[in-house]
Amino acid sequence: LFVAEGTSAKKKAKIRHNAYLYQGFKQFVANVKVGTHCRFIFGHSLAESDDHILKRIGKGRLKKIYVGIYGDPLEVVNQTIIQRAQALAGLRPENWPLEVVFYDAATANVWG
After folding, report:
1. What DSSP string runs through 15-77?
2. Cα distance between residue 8 and residue 107, in whole Å
3. Do residues 66 and 82 make contact, with C-beta atoms less than 8 angstroms apart?
4. What gap in Å lies between CA 14 and CA 43, rounded to an integer?
5. CA 82 – CA 68 distance, rounded (Å)
6. Residues 89-94: contacts with CB within 8 Å, 24+ apart?
7. pTM for the full model?
8. Is residue 1 very low, low, confident or very high in pLDDT (cuts 50, 70, 90)?
């Protein structure tokens, strides 16, 4: 359930004009507003083109996000992911902190 191409603004516009995608987006937004949940992010670059989703996480009330890093954490691509994930925590007020935890995506047995 995603829009693969375009800027964040274009993706958001596409979502708003598709009932199925918009319903999924509304459900996601409602979920990140719940302060008792956490979120696992696997296989995602946290690119700017997905800011319409990422900012919702940053401004939500999730207590914790786990972000998968594949390979050497010092690689440029992983450093970018780390910086963008930490920036999400910076969107939070002090009374709703977001803890960001990084894990080795290669060790996640996601598909069974």
Report:
1. HHT-HHHHHHHHHHHHHHT-TT-EEEE-S----GGGHHHHHHHHHS--SEEEEEE-S-TTSHH
2. 30
3. no
4. 23
5. 10
6. 89/58, 90/58, 91/55, 91/58, 91/59, 92/58, 92/59
7. 0.87
8. low
**Which tokens is 74 given?**
């010092």
22 CB-near residues (< 8 Å, 6+ apart): 15, 16
Burial of residue 44 (number of CB atoms within 10 Å: 0-12, 13-18, 19+):
middle
pLDDT 10s digits, 57-79: 999 999 999 999 999 999 999 99
Look at residue 103 and give its three-state secondary structure.
Answer: strand
DSSP state, residue 7: -
Amino acid identity for residue 19 in this structure:
A
Could you report the per-residue pLDDT of 25-55, keeping only the tens digit for each? 999 999 999 888 899 999 999 999 999 999 9
